Amino acid sequence: MIAPRAPAFAAAAPLRAVELDDVAGRPQVVAWDRATGQRRVLTRARHGVDACDLEPDGGHVWWFDADPDGVGAWHRQPFDGGPAAPALTGLPRGRPYGIAFDHAGTLAVVCVGGDAESRYHLGTPGGPARPLATVAGYAPLVDLSPDGTLLALAGRPDGPAAVTVVRRTDGHTEALAGGPHRRVWALEFRPDPAGDAELLLVVEAGGHYTVGTWRPGRDVRLHERLAFDTEITAHWHVDGRRVLVQQDRAGRSRLLLADLDGGELAVLPTPPGTILELACAPEGTIHYVWSREATPPRRLVVDPAADPRPTPGPPAAPGRREVWTPQPYGRIHSFLATPPGPGPWPTIHLLHGGPFLHDRDSYDPRVELLTGAGYAVVRTNYRGSTGYGPRWRHDFGHRVGLAQLEDLDAVRRHLVDLGVAQPGRIGLCGYSWGGYLVLLALGVAPDDWAVGLAVSPVADYATAHRATLPAVREADEELFGGTPAEVPDRYRAADPMTYLDRVRGPLFVAAATDDERCPAEAVGRYVAALRDRAVPHEVLWTTGGHHGDAAGQSAVFAALLRYATAVLPPYGPPPAAPSQDHRDRRGPNPDRPEGGECNEATHCAARPDQHGRAGPWRRHRQDAPRS
Asked: Cβ contacts of residue 620 below 8 Å, gap of 6+?
């Protein structure tokens, strides 16, 4: 299942919008004529479309055509239909690190990512691209001011140039600094071409996340009335005076609309659950994508000017509850789903990626499939997860992986004590960074886990750091406090390769040969070592990049579930350990696995970290850390 996305609206043509919808198992651009209600599929991209936007006059749609590695080019296509053409002629292929238009749509700026740099180009839509600047590393475009004079670029939020603002006419720059105790994220410019340029920010400092604004030549202004104890993101309302704030707390969302000049602060009526994405329409209504644990994502609308009654949501599903596990450093929050009937049950910990993401009160088809097979499923927001404040996110030192395993072990023991989980019949399943935790756990604490199921994992941290994307490499360095050469002991302690001699399995690993976030080279080294040690395992090599497509995701999850039910049957006693079961669906060279027919399983979180390098509601998703 491909979740719907919030619409993108044409700023100067209120009755035109575009959406990304599931078309034959792939996301495609759908043109929405709001005057007639008619929707028309605009693209038929082979690998689907994950980034699009509308020119301000609504005449043309921009969409990014990428290969499975995420490398591609921007196309421009008439809203009313017709052939696509280059969005800017002469623009090089690369990764989509952001696009933005001025207020009139006469100027476009595009950031294209390469292996080690970010390249900025500008031009008239449909015209030639003119190189503007090149910046080393991962520095995506945040926004272009409405008058077209200022570009905001994103740096590391804790770095000396967390945000860089470039004056296009002469290249003059101003940097907004972050630091280990003050992190800064830029979101977007105020949509007012007549006024001074004003950049919306979120600043983390003093244990809070605070909405801030910045104008050229001035210091950052913090709006203390809009300070929150858990993560937020913000968006200018179309009136240019108010700000829409989304706060995520303990896996659920709420929306607020605030006047920055000290006026009303209103909580908008939205049903309990999670807001996955939103956009503000030109008339001021808020279109958002919402979900609950047992309710697939759906599009809803709230009008701040209307009767403040919430849209009723469905009742909570049976067999769903939350568990809070107390520890000296705080309470660990988990979402629990159980099959019908009395427990205890064989249990699967389903681990989110990131690590700076979180599991939430939203639909996950894997939970439905696992509980339908007879397993209890627990989703734990271990330390590093968002939605619980800065301390939970950052204060575990540089004990990467090991601190998270402590949390998972505490929840495991708690569920046994509660009579939910069957002792000795508890497994781990994770994707991306969650898959990394699976591999690490089966080496660090092999007695605790009955099976490991890892999809697209980080398997050899030093190798993965060298071979991954610049954005992910930078996130690793923030997490560890340096590179593998600078802090080798930290990487060694967190590396699944370090604990290979203790791994007993059984273990299922699925990985894509063309995954650039969690490289196949690192996974190949790990599974070759499993084979040398005769550890019971199965390996499924796939194609389709880190996320894959819907059909491939389903195929991989089917293989994962088949393996789980064979080694950890949901009903009856466990079978004898398959001591020599190390099937490897691979090519002839274990260090260079060949592609198969499947892709990654059901879904990785497509939404970037809430405090990504660019505003999370922009229609051109940036490369994000492992998810």
From this structure: 51, 52, 53, 64, 96, 98, 99
Reduce the DSSP state of residue 551 to 3 states and report it: helix
Rounded to an integer, what distance in angstroms lies between the CA atom of residue 374 and that of residue 570? 5
- CA 237 to chain centroid, in Å, comes to 24
Place of tokens 């009313």: 80
- Contact between 552 and 598 (Cβ < 8 Å): yes
Separation between Cα atoms, residue 329 and residue 208, nearest integer Å: 18
Q: How far is CA 306 from the centre of its chain?
A: 32
Distance CA 181, CA 161 (A): 14
DSSP letter for 313, please: P
Residue 593, CA atoms < 13 Å, CB-side half-sphere? 28
Q: What's the token pair of residue 383?
A: 């330390």
Between strands 265-268 and 252-259, the pairing is: antiparallel
Instruction: Please report which confidence band the pLDDT of residue 366 belongs to, taking 50, 70 and 90 as the band edges.
Output: very high
Q: Are strands 182-189 and 173-176 parallel, antiparallel or unpaired?
A: unpaired
Distance from C-alpha of 32 to C-alpha of 513, rounded to nearest angstrom: 37
Residue-wise pLDDT tens digits, 542-585: 876 666 666 677 888 899 999 999 999 987 555 444 444 445 44
CB under 8 Å to 453, separation ≥6 — which residues? 348, 427, 428, 429, 430, 438, 507, 508, 560, 563, 564
Q: Which whole number is the average pLDDT over 314-324? A: 86
Tens digits of residue pLDDT in 141-161: 999 999 999 999 999 899 999
Contact at 8 Å (CB) between 578 and 586?
Answer: no
The CA dihedral of 337, 338, 339, 342, to the nearest 10 degrees, is -160
Burial label, 569 (beta-carbon count in 10 A; 0-12, 13-18, 19+): middle
Q: SS3 of 462, please?
A: helix
Residue 178 main-chain phi, psi, to 5 deg? -110, -165
Q: Encode pLDDT of 235-279 as tens digits.
A: 999 988 899 999 999 999 999 999 988 777 899 999 999 999 999
Please give the structure tokens belonging to residue 608. 């970037």
202 half-sphere exposure, CB direction, 13 A CA radius: 30
Which residue in 625, 568, 254 sits closest to 432, CA to CA? 625
Alpha-carbon span 381 to 383, nearest angstrom: 7
pLDDT in tens, 189-235: 999 888 889 999 999 999 999 999 999 999 999 999 999 999 999 99
